[in-house]
Write a structure and sequence with these properties.
The chain is of the alpha+beta class and 262 residues long. It is built from eleven helices and seven strands. Helix content is 58%, strand content 15%. It has a seven-stranded mixed beta sheet with strand order 2-4-3-1-5-6-7, with helices on both faces.
Amino acid sequence: MFETLFANFNWRSVIDISLVLVLLYQLYKLVRGSLAVNILLGLVAIYVLYLVVDALELRLLARILGQFIGVGVISLIILFQPEIRRFLLMIGKNAAFKNRGWIRRLFSGQVQSTEQDFNYVQEAVNAAWRMAHERTGMLVVFARTSELQFFANTGETLDAKISSRLLESLFNKYSPLHDGAVIVANGKCKAAGCVLPISENPDIPDDLGLRHRSALGISEHSDAVVLVVSEETGRISLAINGRLHPYTDRKKLITKLGQLLA
């Protein structure tokens, strides 16, 4: 078996193996930090076991494992639904940005919209800094490729211009909408008091509450960027692709958030 394998080994095999390794690495980056990592490792282990059993000609066990691998594609779609959605969003987002490059070159109005985006980002960060000082929780979801209409429907529709005062009033402890999330799309406050999915990542520290788990959950289900303020510690963080990034410098946070949403 191995003699035949190496006899057919050529430069195409090198390219083939290299592409597979790159694909596996990108897949690992996509599912890193979630339950999907353990599932993926389990599937790889079963496939390696199938190759060994098939090479040893253990026919009964090879047939059983072969039947399991035969439905592997359907299993992958079911088990990795959030990761596949995020992967497709990432591809679509990159394609959309390339298309927008033509529009930006043809119409100068895109520059003004970028400046407006930067203004509402600054308003949101200013509100976060004041609420962090007052130990008031905050959860703002900035939609990117998708407008997150499904999650926006779980809250109260606003369609309002973003300002620091608006966000501070929405997340005031006596506000009926302070427990939910604010969803921002196209530079406007789309909805408030929204319910978000909870992250199932087992590696989340125990000191992070429901607000942070919701921020991580929506960032795992979409390419949204989430600005979250801890009510207990006053810590300000960005949730991106299922990971939390704390910030202690206001200008750096404004710059980073502006770059992600520009």
